[in-house]
Design brief:
The chain is an alpha/beta fold. It has 59 helices and 56 strands. A hairpin with a 2-residue loop joins strand 18 and strand 19. It is elongated and about 145 Å long.
């Protein structure tokens, strides 16, 4: 590999090749020996670079690095048996050819190093100061652990270039070492040589010939740059695995100079066994290295992992050319071409000395015969062998079947890997074949070979190896399919491994592993191999063998195989992992019930020094009866009494936090809400939020009493029930219980009532919350088979997935879980769009939701184990594991859970005894357990109130938990510790029971008065010193208090390697840490807890363990910050925050003054102290908590404190008084202080609670789990993440990519949705519509977030805001303003006095005068219209408002929507979805575009309009028959009396309100047929059509894109009149009279939301009293009432009042008024034919039009008893016009004073229509033109033919110049101004001469251009009475192309 001729295939037979290679390596003088696999299997390198996808340049860089930077060279030991040849050089430092070899002289010269060789430095005895440079084949050098060097030697001389020295003796002669002893390479090859930055060779690290722990650790911890092998491409992980052999040095691959890298030569091989196979062994350092080296990432190397467990035997042993070969001819091209097929394993076989198993003579077993299992197998083997079926047929077993376990897992794994995933079918499955069976088996062997002795094989790893091998072997083909461009030539078809070669290759692979894998080859069937294996087992010949691979591969194309796991450790773990949780419990129960465990107890009692532990306990109990051991007197009760001076609370650390919602929870609640809204907004009609009035809910939780109480507590305290209006103020606990459902046997009845409730209340939205949703996903179909005993199994499916829940339109199901994986399968019911994931707290380095607490979860725990971190929070206990393993071998029939539990309980018992004074027991516990127990018992003494810490002891199996509880309680009782700490048995099915003494304490701390109170949740145990034995197969979401300090998970079922199970157990420790003290920093200055690195018992022998501070601890330099004991009185070191540094090692030793002072200033304890020399430990450190300890790696013994100190300590500890224990924990006291002083200081002492908020708990794990969690796979994720996600699902295919570290939760969800399928027992199994949208349930959501992060609070908050939103949805803000100018109403004699008339009487109505005054509150700022001489006080009119206040200040009222409201696009309901044109099953309604043209004389051109008419609305129109041209809109007849439809077509002009406009009139019209046309601008046509596909649109011509509402009104009216003419003509032909065609249209605003009618009871005929009530009615009712009015066609304009809550009886007293109408008009287009809207107007165009209609002598009627409510809409409408500068991009608003300017000036032009600028200017600045008119209401401005708003300070008088028009009498008026706006020919000079003006009155003439301005002045003879000046001319601030308006002002003479 990397040799000069790597890649040419030899045609020699396989055996010959192998033999020749070996021979060559032994004998060769001329060439570099070539590894056999490179000869046989490798192709030319140039394809590699293409295959690997890496460019050649990469590889070259790596080559240089390999050859230069770190090239170790080997000097040999010559031992001169023969004199040197004559004439050769014999000078020291030179070779026999006379070339200089000294490093100093040739360090900078280029040296040619062949591939696979390293440069090393040899020491010559005659030149002690020099190193000689040699090139040595790296296979003959050791790895970093001193292992795996091939015996023998192969080296070259770098001086003369001579190659092929095969013996070190020969080589040492050549380089003149001149030895006197037998040359040994180990002795003389001393250093690797490396190139420095300048490229010069320098002395590198020592060559590690002996496997010294010390060296290997050092290199492991060192970074890549100093490690022996460079972290280039494939050698990346090499040097990084601490304590593991570095396989790169196995002789099979020369790794130093890798041409294209040794690994990449077997691309498939190397990648396949990449870090994935590391079964928890991968070190975090590897991860960092790989991260630092980008080239290492894409192809993780196998070399780092395929370690051989020992060096191969002597080269010649077991191999000779005559050795029997397993194959006959025909191999030549066969096996050789595996080229890319193989994966990793090749690199792990040395090609020398590999041996095929010698043929075994099997007892002949016929293939059909069963294999008998020996009787005493378990007894002999100490473990049940686990046999995994592999390929082919598996024989029957008979006999002692109880002693073996047979599993199909491997068979399934093989099957999965055979099926090519759909992901690759696109590449053409025909060309890409699945991995062959032979290859699978071979890879399995490679995998097993490289497993360490304490590792267990994992199917996931094997699948990844298969996938990688397959992928790599087909990389070229796949690339060809992926890339159209030419690819490097594909390798010629390669032949796979044949079955004949298989046993041989497998044997070859296994030969290097020290017999941990044994291969048995069979001839006929597996039966013979199995019986052979049983024979060997019984004979004890497989004692060192962990795996036996049996293969039958001869004489047939198919192979049979199986793998037996015989290693005791592995077999036990695997056999236990095959049990289901139910079987596991059954097994443990059985062992407990049958008394099998008694033998274990008996064994323990033999261990005790003085016989049985119980005897020792009884003895202790009797000795101490009557007095508690003095060391433990500090009972919390006396303490709190003595300290509570003046009644002040003594401990400030204990505060139960108030319940408040955190920013994160609010963010999640809002995300949930927006998902619910998006379901409602989608067009599928699955959720009609508009139809719900309130929210109700039910929370379903697993059957755990504590979780139930906890959830009740959350619901109660969140106030959600009050907020939802479900309960009144004083609710009881029983009421709250209705909303939480425990999924137990009684659940069904409660759930039925919930369903019934939802059925009876269709207008309530029910949220069904399924908390802890990953629990019990068993299908109800298999429920009966699954477990008859437990009715709760399958309950979730029966209840939550029942038909009623799925179909109820008012139930939304929310699944909440921390482990959503089982709900994310191919068959899930939850749409990926309905998943809500807890947000990350940081995004791109920005803290998104600042909180005062930091969540500490799994990833943070894992992070704490990395080397740079000061506090490893995840640990394992090696001494405990060792004891368990030993006992496992002794008691093979006991389940390891039983053994582990008994051992751990024993450890706790011994630790309690040790702490109580029985110091001899300290050797019978582990350091970890001792630390836990000490801190548990001592913590209450450090707090004035006696607060302590909680230890969580997780015992999943309930019977074992009961055993543990009884045993620990018994020991506690005998030691008289009952009042010191509580032991609680936490069982899911029952509540919490604790002793009265502790209840009393808790009540005191929590200030609870209730005599009956008992803690019901673990959270209420805050501060209680206790061991919580937490049982139950799964945690059910129970939260633990902040006083939890230790989470002891050493007993979790480590065989259940499933992601959910692991994360769930680790989730118990999840925690919120106070953000004020950053953990890192706090950790440096705090008493931190013990190191993960262990003490062996010998280290501690002489140390006293009573006070934990004295435990000596070895700390590694990397982790020097950690101190052994955190919570102990004596060695805690507080944080700076508490400014106390509690005493050090010995509590009662006198302290030197200087140290006492140092104690008082904790800041002085700087880094200098941390690095103190070991000798410093001789002094007691009272000031500094953790004594510095020397590095664990140093070989010398740890110096102990002198014995005097120790004896002193011992004597003190026997009688520690209360005061001294207080002293020990008080920060600034020295031991010489008096007890009283100590007492006072104690208040500053460290309560364990104060640390609780700053530090997460410490978690102890089983070693197997620890390795699994802390190791990372190739993607950088913890290994645990790539496990099967849940028990109830399986992988869809083993052809799946690995999860990646960079994946977000959403991407992980999509990954699981693609790659997992539910098992048949899973409730989603039947939901088979894979991935189709309709297979998802539309009203199902999934909320996932880390455990204990606050999901309950988030979903309760969601319920609150959902309720608020629903209320908000059913409410609307409507304008609520009283009418203005009421007091100015004309007191005429005429009122419409017939109060009870339903319709106006025409004759009476004609006599009513017209009320000119505007009463609509929106015109509060408009100019008053004078109709006769009024005395209006100026203060009656409000000051003019700023334009922006106009919207802000208008008053609104919140109204509940009635069933007759108009809606915007957000409303969906069953009734109106057809009306809206959305239908889930169809495309949007089709519609067609029709042009419609008519000419209009005033515009002087034809108007081209477009109608968009949906198919469903075409019946309203008439089309020409042949061409389908739009002819007219159908109109009904006046005489029609039908109540089925509304006669008048409704037109709604709208802009900018496609979403918010109220165009859904379905409910308002009460379902009646009506014609509704939206009038839109051309540029908005598409967006309106998208939102309102079923509405008719009238599209205005593009010239009106920037026009105001006047243009829309103008066109609507003109079009309607034109249409009326067309309809009259059309219907005349049908014999209908023209006057019978209905002439009315409705012009409605887009914000009219509801309509009301006032019912008046007039009481008496003349009675003044009037009682009335208002009710909401449909628009249909109002329209039909108005349309039915007698003589309706005589009215030109009909309207109604605007609603106001302040309406008084005076306004509704008269049913009809003749006045202005606004907002909702019914217009007679026939009568108003000659009265036009002003198409240029933007504002007040309705007032202007009303005045014209009235002056034309037509009737305007307002129905006062009808009112319209207008919704406040913040977008669109007239607010969509923004006036900005035309030139600059500055968006700053321009003030109205700048809207006009002098003509030809340099003024900035504005981008706005001239007319808008004019109106806006007049509204705000008209006093500039009419100074006399300001606040002068008796002298108004005369406005001819138009009404312009001149602002509220100026009144106007409107007159029409049309002949015969109705005008007010103006003879009495003296006008203060004259406004002539675009006046037409009706205005003449004579007309103006009728009016009288004040002297100095001003005139303003407005025209389209300057020319017409001149003409108007001349035509109207204005210069006779008005004086003009040149500077009085103005224009709107428009550019010429925008056609500005011009003004001329003048003064009256």
């Amino acid at each position: 590999m990397g040799n000069s001729y790597a890649g040419q295939l030899k045609t020699t037979r396989f055996e010959e090749v192998l033999h020749n290679s070996i021979e060559a390596s032994l004998r060769s003088n001329s060439l570099v020996p070539r590894p056999v696999f490179s000869q046989l299997y490798l192709e030319a390198e140039q394809q590699l670079s293409a295959l690997e996808g890496g460019s050649r340049a990469d590889n070259e860089d790596e080559e240089e690095e390999g050859e230069g930077a770190l090239e170790p060279t080997c000097p040999p030991n010559p031992y001169q048996m023969h004199p040197p040849p004559e004439g050769c050089c014999t000078t020291d430092g030179f070779c026999q050819a006379g070339k200089d070899l000294r490093l100093v002289s040739i360090s900078s010269e280029p040296i040619d190093v062949p591939a696979g060789f390293l440069l090393v430095g040899a020491k010559s005895p005659s030149l002690p100061d020099h190193l000689l440079v040699c090139a040595v084949d790296r296979r003959f050098l050791p790895d970093d652990n001193g292992h795996n060097a091939l015996l023998g030697f192969s080296g070259n001389c770098v001086g003369c270039g001579k190659k092929g020295f095969c013996y070190f003796t020969e080589f040492s002669n050549h380089i003149n070492l001149k030895l006197t002893t037998q040359p040994k390479k180990q002795k003389h090859l001393k250093y690797y040589l490396v190139r420095n930055a300048q490229g010069a060779l320098t002395k590198g690290p020592l060559i590690c010939w002996k496997g010294s722990e010390f060296r290997s650790r050092q290199t492991a911890a060192s970074t890549g740059s100093s490690s022996v092998f460079p972290p280039a491409e494939s050698s990346g992980p090499l040097a990084t695995f601490s304590g593991e052999p570095i396989p790169g040095t196995t002789p099979s691959i020369p790794m130093g100079a890798q041409q294209a890298g040794a690994a990449s030569e077997h691309p498939s091989l190397t990648a396949a066994v990449g870090p994935a196979v590391l079964n928890g062994k991968d070190s975090p350092k590897h991860q960092q290295l790989v991260k630092n080296d980008p080239s290492a990432m894409p192809r993780p190397s196998a070399l780092g992992i395929l370690s051989n467990s020992g060096p191969p035997k002597k080269r010649h042993k077991g191999w000779s050319p005559e050795s029997p070969s397993t194959t006959d001819g025909g191999y030549s091209q066969g096996g050789g071409n595996r080229a890319k097929h193989e994966s990793a394993g090749m690199s792990c076989m040395p090609q020398v000395g590999l041996v095929g198993p010698a043929p075994v003579t099997f007892p002949v077993v016929a293939s059909g015969e069963p294999v008998s299992v020996p009787d005493n197998l378990l007894k002999i083997c100490k473990a049940k062998p686990v046999i995994f079926k592999g390929h082919g047929n598996f024989p029957y077993l008979c006999g002692n079947l109880n002693d073996v376990v047979v599993s199909p897992l491997l068979y399934t794994c093989y099957q999965n890997s055979q099926s090519i995933s759909r992901a690759y079918e696109q590449y053409g499955a025909s060309t890409i074949q699945p991995i062959s069976e032979e290859m699978q088996l071979l890879l399995t062997v490679y995998y097993l070979v490289q497993l360490a002795a304490d590792q267990v094989p994992l199917m996931e790893d094997l699948e990844q190896i298969f996938l990688r091998s397959w992928r790599e072997s087909h990389l070229t083909e796949i690339r060809q399919y992926q890339q159209p461009q030419p690819c490097p030539p594909a390798p010629s078809a390669v032949a796979p491994v044949t079955s004949a070669q298989l046993p041989w290759l497998a044997g070859l692979a296994a030969s290097s592993c020290n017999d941990s894998v044994h291969i048995i080859e069979c001839t006929y069937s597996l039966a013979e191999g199995l019986s052979e294996m049983f024979r060997l087992l019984v004979e004890g010949k497989l004692a060192k063998t962990n795996y036996v691979v049996i293969v039958r591969a001869c004489r047939s194309p198919a192979i049979d195989s199986c793998v037996a796991v015989t290693g005791k450790y592995q077999a036990r773990i695997l056999s236990e992992s095959l049990l289901t949780p139910a079987e596991y419990q059954k097994e443990v129960n059985y062992e407990l019930v049958t008394g099998k465990v008694d033998s274990l107890g008996a064994f323990f009692s033999t261990l005790c020094p003085e016989g049985d532990i119980d005897i020792l306990l009884d003895k202790f109990h009797q000795e101490n009866q009557g007095h508690i051991p003095s060391s433990l007197t500090a009972s919390s009760v006396t303490k709190s009494a003595s300290l509570d001076v003046g009644g002040a609370p003594a401990c400030t650390s204990y505060n139960l936090e108030p319940h408040h919602i955190r920013p994160f929870q609010l963010a999640v609640a809002q995300k949930l809400l927006s998902h619910v809204c998006s379901i409602a907004d989608s067009s599928t009609q699955n959720l009609d939020l508009g139809s719900f009035e309130k929210v109700d809910f039910l929370i379903c939780i697993p059957p755990s009493e504590v979780t139930y109480q906890q959830t009740l507590f959350h619901v109660w305290h969140s106030g959600v029930l009050l907020e939802l209006g479900l309960e009144k103020e004083h609710m009881t606990k029983q009421r709250v219980e209705q909303y939480v459902l425990k999924l137990d046997a009684e659940a069904q009845t409660k759930f039925k009532s919930f369903l019934q409730n939802s059925f009876q209340n269709p207008h309530t939205l029910f949220v069904l919350i399924h908390d802890h949703a990953h629990w019990d996903l068993v299908s109800s179909a298999v429920h009966n088979l699954y477990s008859q005993s437990d009715p709760a199994v399958g309950l979730v499916d029966r209840l939550l997935n029942c038909r009623e829940v799925k179909e109820a339109p008012n139930i939304v199901t929310l699944h909440v879980t921390s482990f959503p994986y089982a709900l994310q399968t191919q068959h899930t019911l939850i749409s990926p769009y309905n998943e809500i994931h807890w947000p990350a707290s940081y995004s791109h380095g920005v803290d998104l939701y600042p909180e005062n607490k930091k969540y500490f979860g799994l990833s943070e725990f894992i992070e704490s184990t990395l080397s740079g971190h000061s506090l490893p929070l995840l640990r394992y206990d090696s001494s405990f594991e060792a004891m368990v393993t030993a006992l496992g071998k002794r008691f093979p029939r006991l389940h390891s859970a039983v053994i582990r539990t008994f051992v751990l309980v024993q450890h706790y018992a011994a630790a309690m005894m040790a702490v109580s004074g029985l110091s001899q027991m300290k050797d019978y516990t582990s350091v970890e357990t001792l630390e836990i127990t000490q801190n548990l018992i001592n913590s209450p003494k450090q707090c004035p109130c006696g607060h302590g810490l909680m230890v969580l002891l997780r015992v999943p199996c309930s019977p074992l938990a009961a055993v543990a509880y009884e045993r620990l309680a018994h020991v506690r009782a005998r030691l008289a510790l009952e009042e010191h700490f509580e032991i609680i048995l936490g069982n899911p099915s029952s509540g919490i029971t604790i002793g009265k003494h502790f209840v009393k304490q808790l009540k005191t701390w929590q200030k609870i008065e209730d005599a009956e109170w008992r803690p019901q949740t673990y959270l209420e145990l805050e501060g209680l010193p206790c061991i919580l034995i937490f049982s139950g197969m799964d945690p059910h979401g129970e939260s633990l208090p902040r006083s939890l300090r230790y989470c002891d998970l050493r007993l979790i079922n480590s065989s259940c390697l499933v992601r959910t199970a692991l994360e769930q157990e680790l989730g118990l420790a999840a925690y919120f840490v106070s953000n004020e003290v950053p953990l890192e920093k706090g950790a440096r200055n705090e008493p931190l807890e013990s190191d993960a690195e262990k003490l062996s018992s010998t280290d501690n022998e002489d140390e006293e363990l009573v006070t934990e501070g004295s435990i000596s601890e070895k700390r590694s330099p990397v982790k020097r910050e950690r101190s052994r004991s955190h919570d102990s009185a004596s060695s805690s070191l507080s944080s700076k925050a508490s400014s106390s540094a509690p005493c050090g090692e010995s509590s009662a030793q006198p302290v030197a003054p200087s140290q006492g002072e140092r104690a008082r200033s904790p800041q002085s304890c700087g880094p200098s102290e941390e690095t103190r020399a070991p000798g410093d430990r001789q002094r007691p450190h009272a000031s500094r908590g953790p004594p510095p300890v020397i590095s664990r790696r140093s070989p010398g013994p740890t110096p102990q404190p002198d014995s005097g100190l120790r004896t002193g300590q011992r004597s003190v500890q026997a009688s520690v008084t209360v005061s001294s224990s207080q002293l020990s924990s008080s920060g600034s006291s020295s031991s010489s202080m008096t007890p009283a002083a100590g007492t006072l200081v104690l208040q500053a002492s460290q309560c364990s609670m104060s640390k609780a908020c700053r530090q997460p708990p410490i978690v102890f794990l089983p070693k197997l789990v620890y390795d699994m969690v802390t190791a990372t796979d190739s993607s950088g994720l913890p290994k645990a993440a790539s496990l099967l996600p849940s028990h109830s699902v399986m992988w869809a295919s083993s052809f799946r990519p690995l999860l990646s570290k960079t994946m977000t939760s959403t991407e992980q969800s999509l990954y699981y949705r693609q790659w997992t399928v539910p098992r048949p027992s899973h409730m989603d199994y039947g939901n088979r519509a894979e991935g189709r949208v309709d297979s998802f349930h539309p009203r199902r959501l999934l909320l996932s977030g880390p455990p204990q992060i606050g999901k309950t609070g988030a979903y309760l908050q969601f319920l609150s805001i959902l309720s608020r939103m629903l209320i908000r949805l059913t409410e609307v803000d409507v304008y609520d303003e009283e009418e203005i100018n009421i007091n100015l109403r004309e007191e005429s004699d005429w009122h419409y006095l017939q109060l009870s008339d339903p319709w106006p009487d025409l004759e009476l109505f004609k006599k009513l005068p017209f009320d000119y005054i505007i009463h609509d509150p929106k015109y509060e700022d408009a100019s008053l219209i004078c109709s006769h001489l009024q005395s209006i006080k100026s203060e009656d009119r409000g000051m003019s408002r700023k334009p922006e206040e106009l919207y802000v200040r208008r008053q609104t009222a919140r109204m509940r929507l009635s069933k007759y409201a108009a809606y915007n696009t957000y409303h969906h309901c069953e009734q109106c979805h057809q009306y809206m044109g959305f239908h889930p099953r169809y495309q949007l309604y089709e519609s067609t575009l029709h042009a419609f043209a008519f000419s209009y004389s005033m515009l002087g051109e034809e108007i081209q309009l477009h109608f968009i008419i949906p198919k469903s609305k075409e019946h309203h129109f008439v089309f020409s028959q042949p061409g389908g041209q739009l002819e007219s809109m159908r109109l009904p007849l006046v005489t029609d009396k039908s109540h089925e439809y509304i006669k008048s077509p409704t037109f709604t002009p709208t802009t900018g309100r496609h979403e918010h406009g109220l165009f859904n009139l379905y409910h308002a019209m009460d379902g009646a047929s009506h014609l509704h046309v939206l009038v839109v601008k051309e540029y908005e046509m598409a967006i309106y059509k998208k939102y309102w596909p079923n509405h008719i649109m009238l599209v205005l011509p593009s010239i009106f894109n920037s026009a105001g509402v006047g243009a829309a009104h103008f066109l609507i009216k003109e079009l309607s009149y034109h249409n009326l003419e067309l309809e009259r003509n059309r219907q005349e032909e049908l014999g209908i009279k023209p006057q019978d065609i209905w002439p009315f249209i409705v012009i409605s605003d887009d914000s009219c939301v509801m309509w009301n009618v006032v019912d008046v009871d007039c009481g008496g005929e003349r009675s003044r009293e009037l009682s009335w009530s208002e009710r909401n009615v449909s628009l249909k009712y109002i329209m039909q009432h108005i349309e039915a009015s007698p003589n309706i066609t005589h009215y030109a304009l009909i309207g109604m009042r605007k609603w106001s809550s302040k309406t008084g009886s005076s306004e509704v007293r008269e049913p009809f008024s003749r006045c202005h109408v606004h907002d909702f008009l019914i217009l007679n287009v026939d009568l108003t034919q000659n009265v036009q809207y002003n198409q240029n107007r933007f504002m007040c165009d309705d007032v202007d039009f009303n005045l014209r209609v009235h002056s034309a002598g037509l009737l305007l009627c307002r129905f006062n008893r009808f009112s319209v409510m207008k919704k406040q809409i913040a977008v669109g409408g007239h607010r969509s016009f923004h006036i900005t500068s035309k030139v600059s991009d500055n968006a700053a608003a321009v003030v109205p004073a700048q809207y006009i300017c002098a003509p030809d000036s340099k003024h900035t032009f504005l981008a706005a229509p001239a007319q808008l600028l004019l109106e806006k200017f007049f509204q705000h600045h008209s006093h500039r033109f009419f100074p006399l008119s300001l606040k002068n209401h008796s002298h108004p401005v005369l406005s001819v033919d138009c009404y312009l708003n001149l602002g509220s300070q100026i009144s106007v008088c409107y007159v029409s110049s049309r002949p015969h028009s109705l005008n007010i009498s103006c003879s009495d008026f003296m006008f203060s101004g004259l406004l002539l706006y675009l006046c037409d020919s009706f205005v003449g000079a004579s007309f103006l001469k009728k009016f009288h003006f004040l002297k100095g009155a001003t005139l303003c003439v407005i025209c389209q251009d300057r020319n017409s301005l001149r003409q108007t002045v001349v035509r109207l003879e204005l210069e006779d009475e008005w004086q003009f000046r040149l500077r009085d001319e103005f224009q709107t601030a428009n550019a010429k192309e925008d056609r500005p308006l011009f003004f001329l002002t003048g003064r009256h003479i």
